[in-house]
Amino acid sequence: MDGTLISTGGAGTRSWRWAFEELHGIPADIGESSEAGMTDPVVGRSTFRNVLHRDPTDAEMRSLLAAYLKRLPAEVQASDGYRVLPGAEDVLRSLNGTGRVTGIVTGALEEAARIKLSRGDLNRFLPFGGFGSDSADRVELTRRGIERGAALIRRELPPERVHVLGDTPRDMDAAVAVGAVPVGITTGKYRADALKLAGAKVVIPTLEAYPALLH
């Protein structure tokens, strides 16, 4: 999602900072403790460990995630840098129009993902998904997303017929692990060579190039 469909202009980072400051008096920077493609639970736990020098309790993690979600809507709406990335809306509309099943796999909590996508009016194209709230493990949440897609259409959805599009090596790793087709996109921070090294079958510069792969 982040870096593939949209950029929130740092809204998530600011929301994490607010949550840590609100709960623990420390305006933590998640960029110092995490990498792109990590799930929200892992981001929160890693940052907590980095700034407070201990593991959070389960109750502390619940409070941290709740505070993050409390702040996120305001940060997304106020973000000057929010944008839908080139081709995202047109490609999703085209895929929906040709009867292809489109969902989302993201390390974000489901509520966070829906908040981020809402400003760009993209939720309507993505009726199901696998989320960081399903599992802290990227592979498991990707598998869950495929299962939900199959449940939606009420028939088997073989992983080898599923394209997983993403802008991080973790996206590609997860696609390989579940037997799906990894498609890398260089709209995030990673270059084509890093995505190919992680298993991308093909790498495209933006989503605008994706429909050509389907012909």
In short:
The protein has 215 residues and is mostly helical. It has helices at residues 11-24, 40-52, 58-78, 88-97, 110-119, 138-153, 169-178, 192-197, and strands spanning 6-7, 83-84, 104-105, 129-130, 163-166, 181-185, 202-204.
Terminal CA distance: 24 Å
- The coarse silhouette is globular
Structural class: mainly alpha
Order of helices and strands: EHHHEHEHEHEHEHE
Strand order in space, largest sheet: 5-6-7
Annotation, overall tally of beta strands: 7
Give the C-alpha Rg.
Answer: 17 Å
Low-confidence stretches: none
Number of helices: 8
Main β-sheet description: 3 strands, parallel
The percent of residues in helical segments reads 40-55%
Description of the molecule:
Helices cover 47% and strands 9% of the residues. It has 215 residues and is mainly alpha-helical. The mean pLDDT is 95. Helix 1 packs across helix 3 (58-78), helix 3 runs parallel beside helix 5 (110-119) and helix 6 (138-153) crosses helix 7. The chain has helices at residues 11-24, 40-52, 58-78, 88-97, 110-119, 138-153, 169-178, 192-197, and strands at residues 6-7, 83-84, 104-105, 129-130, 163-166, 181-185, 202-204. The strands form three sheets. Strands 5-6-7 form a three-stranded parallel beta sheet. Strands 1-2 form a two-stranded antiparallel sheet. The protein has a two-stranded parallel sheet with strand order 3-4.
